[in-house]
Specification:
Layout lengths: L2 E5 L11 H13 L3 E6 L23 H8 L4 E3 L10 E4 L3 H5 L4 H4 L7 H12 L4 E4 L6 H5 L4 E2 L5 H9 L3 E2 L8 E3 L4 E4 L8 H19 L4
Length: about 220
């Protein structure tokens, strides 16, 4: 049975993985007949946000792996525990954690760098030509991983799309439930909550992405 790695970045839209996107990813993988295993880097979060007030709690410190375990119900592995031979593809949900913890795009934008643990983890899939599905803000890492002319979408946000192109990528605008495919690099991306106005629209976006990743796993793009 096809097995997919899910890369999480914490727990909560403002400082970690977007919970709706993460859970719907798991649901769609199961519905479409695939198994999954969650991973996260064992690093400190950039900061911790009070999700009631939206304010950063300067006295709070949390680890990405520990927080991601909340979403995974404890069934999670650190990125350095990956055995690439056991997996057919990778999916990366969004949430600000993707832009704060997996990389520092939230601070440096086009000049951002990917965390070394995360970089090695994603490159393991890339160098083995295994499909990768990106959603929401996580596609900002595409040009850094795949280089010039790599294709992706974050939806239609002008500033983020401009940063994507500035890094050497080719951004394609997309509606909420569209999937943009880069056949050369074997990657797919969808806007999810970058455009979605409700959880139903997010579900449509993720359902389409997971369907595409499933096709790519068997070479039907």
């Amino acid at each position: 049975m096809t097995k997919i790695a899910i890369l999480l970045s914490g727990c909560g839209v403002f400082d970690g993985s977007e919970i709706h996107e993460s859970v719907l990813t798991m649901l769609e993988l199961e519905r479409q007949g695939m198994n999954y295993q969650c991973f996260a880097p064992d690093i400190m979060q950039l900061h911790v946000v009070d999700h009631v007030t939206g304010e950063v709690d300067i006295n709070e410190k949390r680890r990405v792996l520990v927080e991601s375990a909340r979403i995974a119900r404890g069934n999670i592995l650190a990125c350095d525990k990956l055995n690439i031979d056991e997996f057919d593809a990778l999916v990366i949900p969004g949430g600000f954690g993707a832009a704060k913890n997996l990389c520092d795009f939230a601070i440096k934008e086009a000049d951002h760098e990917i965390d070394p643990q995360v970089n090695d983890f994603i490159h393991d899939f890339a160098t083995n030509k295994k499909p990768i599905g990106f959603m929401c803000i996580s596609p900002v890492m595409i040009p850094k991983i795949f280089g010039e002319k790599a294709i992706g979408t974050i939806g239609s946000d002008v500033e983020t799309a401009s940063a994507f192109n500035q890094m050497g990528g080719v951004h394609e605008n997309a509606s909420v439930d569209e999937v943009v495919v880069d056949q050369v690099n074997n990657i797919a991306s969808t806007p999810a909550y970058m455009l979605a106005e409700n959880i139903s629209q997010v579900h449509s976006s993720i359902k389409a992405l997971i369907k595409q990743v499933s096709k790519m796993c068997v070479g039907i793009v």
